[in-house]
Specification:
Elements (H helix, E strand, L loop, with lengths): L1 H14 L4 H28 L2 H22 L6 H42 L1
Length: about 120
């Protein structure tokens, strides 16, 4: 595995359109940004919950897809559209279910005091 990586990275650096030096700069900064991302995710888990961390990560998936098209002028192909629709569908479905469950809990809380009054 490491032999393949040690052969592939220099070849990709040579073929990089902006130059070999910029390839390594992009590679290093990508690694640094990923470290910050995971540090932030772990911080959210520590301070709040893993559920909130998962929600934040799921929310950023469609945002990064859209920003890649806008900032980097990537082509918006069918695969990207399907991924965007599925991630948004999952995100909206999760919050729809949370709203439904919150309404059920509120109705149960309203019914409980009424049932206590009818007993006495």
């Amino acid at each position: 595995m490491s032999i393949a990586i040690s052969q592939v990275i220099p070849r990709e650096a040579r073929d990089f359109k902006l130059g070999e030096t910029k390839y390594y700069v992009v590679l290093v900064w990508s690694a640094i940004m990923w470290q910050f991302f995971f540090l932030g995710a772990i911080g959210v888990i520590f301070c709040a919950s893993s559920l909130l961390s998962g929600i934040i990560i799921a929310a950023f998936l469609p945002i990064t897809e859209i920003l890649a098209v806008i900032v980097y002028k990537e082509k918006f192909q069918a695969e990207k559209g399907v991924a965007l629709v599925l991630s948004l569908w999952g995100f909206v479905s999760y919050f729809y279910d949370e709203i439904k469950e919150a309404k059920k809990m509120k109705n149960r809380e309203m019914e409980l005091p009424q049932s206590l009054h009818s007993i006495t």
